[in-house]
Specification:
By secondary structure, the protein is α+β, with helices and mostly antiparallel strands. The chain is 59% helix and 10% strand.
Amino acid sequence: MTKQPMIHARQDREGEETEDRRWAWYDFANYAEAKEQPDFDGDGDIAKWLGDITARTRNRTLAIARHNAESVLNGTLALDMAPDKRDNTLLLHYFVSRDKLILIGGTDIVLTRTDRGGLQGAMLDCRSPIDALLVLLSEILEFFFVQSDSFEQNLHALEEEMRTRNDRFVLKKTIDLRNDLTYWNAQIIPIKEMHFSAEETFREDVEDSECMHILELRLKRIDMLQKEYDDEIDSLLRVDENITNYRSNDIMKALTVYTVLLTPTTALGAIWGMNFKYMPELDWPLGYVFSLALILATTGATYWWLKRRGLTSDILNMNMRSGGRPEPNKQQGRDKAESTGAAQDNFKG
C-alpha cells in the first residue's frame, strides 16, 4: 500500500486556505516504502538521491543551488545519540525541494520536549519544506541540550572531587570528560553544515524565517556551552598539572634534604670503613663513643643549618594525606614576626 503524503495547507479562522503555497511531506520508515511511491516517478533529482542512499550510513550533505531551475537540498544525517551506546544511532535521509520534504528513517529517538504528534504539527505548520526541516533540526538540538545538563553535573562533581582528593583517577575522569565533549562537538558539525546549506539553496525562504532564527540561536547557545565546558576542563587539567609539579618538586626537595642530612654519616662511615693498617681511632678506649658523638654532632649541625635556611619546615610539617592541609609552621611565624620587627626598626631609624 502506497503511503500518502501529509499536505501543508494553512487555513484562516473561517476555514479558507491562506496564500501560503502548498507543499507535501513524505515520511517513510525505510527505503522500500519510498521506492514504491508513484509521486516520485519522472523526478530525476529524487531518483538520483534514492540511488545514492541505499547503502549510506555516514553524514553527507548535497546542496544544489540553481539559478534558473529548482534548487535541491538532500543528504544523510547520521548521529550517535549516546557516546557509550553506539547502537543508539539516528540515521535520517532527507530530500528538500520547493514543494516537497521527504524523510526516510525514524525520528522518535530525538523526541525530548515534545511527542511525535507535536513535532508533526509544528513541521506541517511551517510555510515551506525547508522550514519544516529546520524545525526538526531544532528538536534534535534539544536532545543535546538535555545531554549537556548531565555533562555539566558530571563536570561540577569532578571539580568538587578534585578540591578534596586529587589522584590519577581524577585525571582519568577529566580526560574522559574531555573525550565526551569532543564526541558531542563532532555530532553538531553535520547539523551546522545543514544549516548553512539551507541558507545556500533556499535563501528566499529562510531569509525572514523564524525557524531559521531559532535554529541559529540554538546553535550559538550550544557553541557557547561547548566553549565554556572546554575552558573548564582545560582549567582542571592545568590545576592537575600544577599539583603534580608541586608534588614532584616536594618529593625531590625531601629526598635532597634527607640526602644532605645523611652526608656526614656516609662520609665518616666511608672513612672508618677503609682497610688501612694504622688507624689510631681503632685503639682508642672511647673511639666508638667518639665516633657516635661526632656523627650525631655533624648531623645535628647539618640539620640546624638546613633549618636556619628554611629548607626543612615545609617537609617536616606537611600533611601528605590526600586533601589534607599542612599544619601551621611556628618557626616560619616567628621568623616572619622577627623580620617584620626588624623592618619596623629600620623604618624608625
